[in-house]
Amino acid sequence: MIKAYTLKNKHNIEVTILNLGGIIHEIKTPDREGNLDNIIHGFKHIEDYTKNDAYFGAIIGRTAGRIKEGLYTLNNKDYKMPTVDRGNGLHGGANGFDKKMWDVEECLNSLILTCVSTDGEEGFPGTVEMTVTYTLTDEDELIIDYKGITDQDTLLNLTNHSYFNLNPKETILEMELMVNSDQLIEIDDVSIPTGNLLDVTETPFDFRTPKKIGRDIFLEHQQLTNGGGYDHPWLVKGDVKLKLSDETTGRQLIMSSDQPCVVLYSYNFPLEGHKNHQGLAIEFQKEPDSLNHPHFTSCILKKDEIYTQQTVYKFKVE
Ligand code: FUC
Who has the most CB within 10 Å: 19, 223, 258, 276? Predict the structure, then answer.
């Protein structure tokens, strides 16, 4: 049975998480006038997440993003994961971590989610034990900590797939975005990384100085054509790696992460009944398809090593 768990802090910020996929169903934060709104784009009813083709709010694993043809070689052995996106592997296969029922433990201001992924699941070796902890602080931060161990060498590269909209009455095009990144990972026409890094200077992908998401999204650019809009990995740096703000409501989201890359998806291909650009998926992770590009950060987790990832979402209003 799908169950919802809510964390609440002293400023009335509320975060609701599901046992299914560890999905962030809602985050309610105040606007300038103190009105609470849900700033997560997803489904209204929690039962609807049983078919979640947009990966709304979910934990993504074992591997976030695309793997070309679902193929990779590890320790001289060839592996193939299910190919669910135009002949390529995406978001951990056909039944990734987003579709799992996680065990949830409530602990003060945290929710501790655990699951086991068995050896061979979705074409990945090793039995992996995962713990994902959601913590809501009185400093208005949602902290997501990921931890994983394996009994054989395997791949692990997790993210959360929440779509944010700080002014949910509108699309995301009027929100201002800052991404602390000089380099974009080029994608081909089926959204697979080519391995090339593009300098963002004087391109629609330059968000070093904050600008509205809608400013350049409809410009002529081969990369925008390939993604149908923004649907790309950026290499990120610095403490504050991303900042989203909305003038109308005064809401801000400031993000930091120990990950080298963020994939931003401007919801270019909405589900039936949804509109384009109703949310911005912000996915901190290691570079997708890294095993097929030696200059990307490795996502191999060796037996007896511990995988960790931390991403912090700070909510502000000005
Ligand atoms: C994102 C994208 C995809 C996809 C999906 C729902 O992360 O990179 O293109 O369609 O999630």
Answer: 19
CA distance 144 to 89: 25
One of 25, 91, 161, 232 is an active-site residue; which one? 161
What pLDDT, on a 0 to 100 scale, did the predictor assign at position 25? 98
Does a cis peptide bond (omega within 30 degrees of 0) precede residue 66? Answer: no
- By DSSP bridging, strand 159-160 and strand 163-164 are unpaired
3-state secondary structure of 81: coil
Q: What is the pLDDT of residue 177?
A: 98
> Rounded to whole angstroms, what are the CA distances from 156 to 64, 69, 72, 308?
8, 18, 13, 10
pLDDT tens by residue, 44-94: 999 999 999 999 999 999 999 999 999 999 999 999 999 999 999 999 999
Tell me whether residue 13 is exposed, middle or buried, using C-beta atoms within 10 angstroms of its C-beta: 0 to 12, 13 to 18, 19 or more.
Answer: buried
- pLDDT for 205 equals 99
φ, ψ at 259 (rounded to 5°): -90, 150
Ligand 1 pocket member 284 (CB < 6 A): no
- Is the CB of residue 55 below 6 angstroms from any atom belonging to ligand 1? yes
Residues (pLDDT < 50) of the chain are none
Is 283 annotated in the active site? yes
CB 257 within 8 Å of CB 237 = no
Please say if 161 is a catalytic residue: yes
Q: Which residue, judged by its Cα, is nearest atom 8 of ligand 1? A: 231
- The predicted structure's pLDDT at residue 115: 98
Q: What pLDDT does residue 213 have?
A: 98
CA atoms within 13 A on the CB side of 52: 33
DSSP, residue by residue, 15-68: EEEESBTT-EEEEEEE-TTS-EEE-EES-SSGGGGGS-TT-TT-EE-SB-SEEG
